[in-house]
Amino acid sequence: MSEEQPLLPSSHLSRKDDTPTFREKTAIFLEMLSPECGEAGDELPAWLEFLSHISLIITSLFMIEIPLAAWAFGPNFYNPFGGVVHSGLHLFDALIIIVTFVLEVALKGRERELAGLLITLRLWRLVKLVGGVAVGAGEIEEESIKKLAETLEELRNVKTELSVVQSENHVLRQRVAMFQSPGV
Length: 184
Hints:
Number of strands: 0
Strand content: under 5%
Low-confidence stretches: none
Oligomer: single chain
């Protein structure tokens, strides 16, 4: 494409405000994927390259986590039809990690920037973490409530036994008092 010739003629625009249509957006996206999109001399700044390496390291750690979780929790951990709670979310998370890793390793230069769009899906891990903390807190709360109910029941039983013992004690004191009185 030359600079004089637009990607798509303006007659294909669907609105008066020159907003591109879905087809035009798709064409632009595909054009961005072409090897001619970036200049050969364009190099990333050192700080961006450093952050790119950090991102690859973090994604690699997440890749290591996937088989470890499958080994530790069993294969049903990623099976949405298995008995594990939220296994569909674990599978979705694993797919995001795998796709991100493959794109970060396979793509170079400007194309790699497109893989950066998956960073928004990485935020899913944050949502998953918050959800896990909430579920964990709920389980701890349920456990605490159960222990509290057991303790309350035990306390009621002890109070009942104490009442019985106090009544027996009162009766026995009356008998002892009766035998100790001088008139008997």
